[in-house]
Specification:
The complex is a heterodimer of chains A (282) and B (272). By secondary structure, chain A is mainly α. Helix content of chain A is 83%, strand content 0%. Chain A folds into two domains: 43 residues; 219 residues, no CATH class. The relative contact order of chain A is 0.14. Chain B contains nine helices and eleven strands. Chain B has a six-stranded mixed β-sheet with strand order 7-8-9-4-10-11, with helices on both faces. The chains are: A mainly alpha (282), B alpha/beta (272).
Chain lengths: 282, 272
């Protein structure tokens, strides 16, 4: 029975059908994306469960893991180093201008080192890797999916969640902290070069001033939070790739969504992790 | 009630139309694949509507039907790449619909699958493609594996293309390599999805001969999805025709060719 059947006809406005239709349209347009989002999360949960189940069972894919460590680590190194160096140069230029204005020029090495190690190094590495590796994994697995190569792996009695997904996710988790160290080093080194061009200072003195008052936890927690970035990048890129459908267009969509979603989740995770680090390593 | 000594048996569900239906049996003591009441839908589209099928060891069943009638889905259900909505799939007596991933993977090692477009791993060479199942599921030494790969590729006339990448091969060559890969573990069951589609007549005949050889020498049970009636006539012991999710008719090529059923006659008319 419809609602209208219970309501006296005279109470119903002439505009009621139009209003009902508008309400239904509004509800549908609001509910549809929410439903899609919840569905995506549900599927991601199932995917993570399948990867975790596959990960603890033999055989362990050592050869594929080494290949992925090279793919994620070595091949991302030049780009990450370059991004770190650029950030170091920009920080040195910007910080000098600000600190000189406030008469705190002596704080310049510490400002550069802390900024890079605490925030810019990890987040820039996370975003650069999510762009390079996320797109690569999304496109590679997406292409394998639409050409039935993943089905062929499964049909030959090999678990694709272990061979393809787990190895890539683990490689991202292991390589992100190492890449972050490389970005940090390049950032600090280029920061010193830029600084020393304006006002000569030895690298030893620069580091001494930069790390004065810094503890081990200042260094450790921000670097290792990039392992979480690695988990996010690997997981989302593998998930988007392995659910790809619709031919070459679908592969393109997988690559794009891998980058967009992993970058977005890296930034969101960064906010949460910074807060947690401040709580646990004050 | 089905008997275990049926080699190729097909029952049509009650929902099927009144087309001529032949429920034929061919004796065997050892069924390799037994399907019972298999249903599969994608959304509102019903693809398979209660198919029953038995294929014995050493027998070849050709599955015919118009495009989109669920022939490839049938093969994917048998190898566990898709799950049926209901029904039973027994491979060498073992139910796969209720088995866990590990058990299904063990069963898959006894089956070879040739995909419609070969599905070769495009980052691996021809040699590595064929080596893939051997490397994973056998304890062969490198030299034993090398010999086996050469033997398999020689069997499909591709022994000279070891180091080529799949992208350097024609469609027919890719299918041959796909077939060599499917045969790597000496499967008891072979599932072939349009093995001769897009191939020249000579290569098609060579593939047919290879399937016949396997049938004779290794007692391999094969299910071949094809549109190639000539190929079906040569390789298949029995032929089943699917239409609207059901098996319309099953029998030998000659039996189907003689059928009075309008749809069957229409299907076979083009080649006659």
């Amino acid at each position: 029975m419809s609602y209208n059947a219970r309501i006296p006809r005279r109470w119903i406005s002439q505009d009621a059908p139009q209003a009902t239709s508008l309400m239904r349209f509004t509800l549908t347009s609001v509910w549809s994306p929410i439903n899609g989002f919840l569905e995506w999360f549900g599927e991601l949960g199932v995917f993570v469960w399948q990867v975790m189940r596959a990960a603890v069972r033999r055989p362990f894919e050592g050869r594929e893991l080494i290949r992925q460590l090279d793919e994620v680590g070595s091949k991302s190194l030049p780009l990450v180093a370059l991004a770190g160096a650029a950030i170091g140069a920009v920080l040195a230029l910007e910080s000098r201008y600000s600190l000189v204005r406030f008469g705190a020029k002596s704080m310049l090495p510490a400002a550069i080192v802390f900024s890079i190690i605490h925030e810019t190094g990890p987040i820039v590495t996370g975003l650069v890797v999510s762009g390079r590796v996320g797109a690569g994994i999304g496109a590679e697995l997406g292409s394998m999916k639409v050409t039935e190569q993943i089905d062929a792996i499964e049909a030959s009695g090999v678990n694709p969640y272990k061979l393809l997904a787990f190895t890539r996710i683990l490689a991202c988790i292991l390589m992100l902290p190492l890449l972050t160290l490389a970005a940090d080093f390049c950032g600090v080194a280029v920061g010193w070069i830029v600084d020393t061009l304006a006002e000569p200072i030895s690298f030893h003195k620069f580091l001494h001033a930069g790390f004065a008052g810094a503890s081990f936890s200042d260094f450790l927690a921000p670097t290792f939070r990039t392992a979480v970035f690695g988990l996010i990048i690997g997981m989302i890129a593998c998930f988007q790739g392995m659910r790809s459908e619709g031919g070459t267009e679908g592969v393109g969509r997988s690559a794009t969504s891998s980058v967009v979603l992993s970058s977005l989740f890296v930034i969101l995770a960064d906010v949460i992790l910074v807060k947690l680090i401040l709580v646990f390593f004050p | 009630m089905m008997h275990s000594d049926q080699a190729v048996t097909l029952r049509v569900t009650e929902s099927s139309d009144k087309r001529a239906i032949e429920n034929t049996e061919c004796n065997t003591a050892n069924p390799a694949v037994v399907l019972r009441g298999l249903h599969k839908s994608f959304g509102a589209q019903r693809v398979l509507d209660g198919i029953d099928l038995t294929v014995g060891s050493g027998k070849t069943l050709a599955v015919l039907g118009r495009s989109g009638t669920g022939k490839s889905v049938l093969l994917k259900l048998i190898i566990g790449l898709q799950k049926p909505d209901s029904g039973s799939i027994r491979i060498h007596g073992q139910e796969i619909t209720s088995s866990n991933v590990e058990a299904v993977n063990e069963i898959r090692k006894t089956m070879g699958f040739l995909f419609q477009h070969a599905a070769l791993y495009d980052s691996l060479t021809v040699e590595e493609n064929v080596a893939f199942p051997l490397r994973r599921h056998t304890r062969m030494t490198a030299s034993e594996r090398g010999d086996r790969i050469k033997e398999l590729l020689a069997g499909v006339g591709m022994e000279g293309e070891l180091k080529k990448m799949p992208s350097d091969l024609s469609g027919g060559m890719q299918k041959r390599v796909g077939l060599a890969r499917a045969l790597a573990l000496e499967p008891g069951i072979l599932l072939l999805d349009e093995p001769t589609a897009g191939l020249d007549p000579i290569t098609s005949r060579e593939i047919d001969e290879l399937i016949l050889k396997l049938q004779e020498e290794h007692d391999v049970a094969s299910i071949v999805v094809t549109h190639d009636l000539q190929s079906a006539k040569v390789i298949a012991d029995r032929i089943v025709l699917l239409h609207q999710g059901n098996a319309v008719i099953e029998g030998t090529f000659e039996e189907l060719e003689r059928s009075d059923d309008e749809f069957v006659a229409e299907f076979f008319k083009r080649d006659s």
